[in-house]
Design brief:
The chain is α+β, with helices and mostly antiparallel strands. It has 20 helices and 21 strands. β19 and β20 form a beta hairpin. About 35% of the residues are buried.
Length: about 525
């Protein structure tokens, strides 16, 4: 545990890519195989199922540290991170720590907490707090609560493992996808240059597009690019090896949630992997809000299947007949995908190419995106291979301009982690008659100077407190941007927006100049054409 805590501190204290890779390689080279496997699991975004709730931990902290409950709550509110609060308040400054390894801690102590009764959990956890130094108390609490995060991408981790094992990074990335489970055997297999993949369900790492910031004409000859609609659904891979598997970009196996897709895939040839989008579809794409009704369902009943039918819109063929096609040019993969789609599968479709004689004509087609229920265009170099992660230059998303509204800030809440001492999370409202109704929450878009200035204003203009939330005077107006808009019975405004963010602080506008709810509804109707 001590070595992994030191690795976490090293990764958290630098922004240097080379320094992070060197730290991971040092740890992985020296760690026992089981420790290395668990480290890879956590560094790649894996978490333990939450073993204990935050409220329970704060209660035990109050009791074990012999501190008033109000002081614990105020400390947590000021720090903004439970693990850091625990590490600061438990009396463990002179604790020598233990020699138990990371795997021993996870497998021998943390996972057995699932079967322990509440009093036994309390006794074990409070004892661990007292025997560990603060840095390990912090890490332990992060692991127990499922809140462990570190600034390392899976691509960076794969690069470190690849350099250590002298195995291509693409191979490591692929082996880590899907059902990879941390164990000494898994770590050994991950490093094996000649290792065979025994998991036939395993998807490939997803290739991601970058936002197109400049003019499309800067990309050169439009004939060198494939244009497609940018569908608003769930990115997924359909893997057909012996049986069908549907994986989301978040590496979640969701085959049972989309039985119509799995049933259609049963007719595909074995050894076939398609990359595409799960879409709610009835005579055309349905709003994402409809698809959300099926997200999170372990299984789907007949009524919901009838109300929200789903298709798989394929836009790339990654494997055929068991042969990996990712290194082939997109034009070759696209021709094979078109041939496959020609067989005619109602639930499996090929994303159509968007034709245009030049960039101006493609730009005009892009302007039609919202009326078609899509987000814009995808531009893909015809000669591009299918990579892993976000690699600029080959795939671009040319999205339509976002919706914008001017809204009044009415609530503020402190952030988390390094932003725990500042109010950085805001709620914005628009006018409905003489009242303000909440429309969106946003926490990104302001620079550090604006955040500090707004924080000072919030503290001086607080009207009421509701736990960590403060209501403030309705005086500050901000321009918000968002990607999508839909009716919603769950929101007081009757409107739900997607991916809201702050564009700018409208110091030139008075609160009464902010938009009205009917203006926002007008955006919704205009977007539907």
């Amino acid at each position: 545990m001590r070595a992994f805590s030191e690795l976490f501190a090293a990764l958290d204290s630098t922004t240097s890519t080379l320094a992070k890779i060197a730290a991971m390689k040092r740890y992985l080279a020296d760690a026992p195989a089981a420790d290395a496997a668990w480290a890879v699991h956590f560094l790649s975004g894996g978490r333990l199922k939450r073993l204990i709730g935050a409220a329970q931990l704060r209660q035990w902290l109050h009791e074990s540290a012999d501190l008033p409950q109000w002081l614990v709550e105020e400390s947590y509110s000021a720090v903004g991170d439970l693990a850091e609060t625990v590490a600061l308040l438990v009396p463990s400054a002179d604790a020598p720590g233990t020699e138990a390894s990371l795997a021993e801690w996870v497998e021998g102590r943390l996972l057995p907490l699932q079967d322990a009764d509440p009093e036994e959990r309390r006794a074990r956890i409070t004892a661990w707090w007292l025997e560990l130094p603060p840095d390990q108390v912090f890490l332990l609490t992060k692991l127990m609560t499922g809140a462990f995060r570190v600034g390392v991408s899976q691509t960076l981790l794969a690069r470190a493992v690849a350099e250590l094992a002298d195995v291509p990074k693409a191979v490591i990335l692929h082996r880590l996808m899907g059902h990879w489970r941390p164990s000494a055997a898994s770590w050994t297999a991950l490093l094996d240059p000649a290792g065979a993949d025994e998991d036939r369900s395993r998807p490939y790492p997803f290739f991601l597009a970058s936002p197109l910031a400049g003019e499309a004409s800067e990309l050169g000859d439009p004939g060198d690019w494939l244009a497609e609609w940018k569908w608003d659904g769930i990115r997924a891979q359909l893997v057909v090896r012996t049986e069908p598997f549907v994986w989301t970009r978040g590496e979640e196996l969701v085959t049972r949630r989309y039985p119509e897709v799995a049933a259609a895939a049963a007719d595909l040839e074995d050894g076939c992997v398609l990359d595409g989008e799960l879409l709610a579809w009835r005579d055309g794409v349905l709003p994402f809000a409809e698809l959300q009704r099926r997200i999170g369902r372990k299984s789907v009943g007949k009524k919901l299947l009838d109300e929200v039918p789903v298709i798989f819109m394929a836009y790339d063929l990654l494997e055929r007949g068991g042969r990996d096609l990712r290194a082939e040019p997109l034009s070759v993969r696209r021709a094979a995908l078109t041939e496959l789609a020609a067989a005619g599968y109602p639930v499996l479709r090929c994303s159509p190419a968007v034709d245009g004689a030049g960039w101006d004509e493609l730009g005009a087609r892009r302007a039609e995106a919202r009326k078609r229920g899509v987000e814009g265009l995808m531009l893909k170099a015809c000669g591009s291979a299918y990579g892993a992660g976000r690699q600029r230059g080959s795939w671009w998303k040319w999205k339509v301009e976002p919706y914008t509204v001017d809204a009044v800030m009415i609530y503020a809440q402190a952030g988390h982690g390094r932003r725990a001492s500042l109010f950085t999370d805001y709620t914005f409202a628009v006018w409905k008659g003489a009242d303000l109704v909440p429309l969106a929450k946003a926490y990104s878009g302001l620079d550090n100077g604006e955040i500090r200035e707004l924080d000072r204003w919030i503290r001086k203009n607080t009207l009421e407190r509701f736990g960590p939330v403060r209501s403030v005077k309705a005086e500050q107006v901000f321009e918000l941007a968002f990607e999508g808009i839909n009716h919603s019975a769950r929101h007081k405004s009757g409107i739900a927006v997607r991916f809201p963010r702050i564009l700018r602080w409208r110091r030139d506008l008075a609160p009464g100049d902010a938009d009205r709810l009917e203006d926002v509804r007008g955006l919704l109707e205009a977007g539907r054409g």
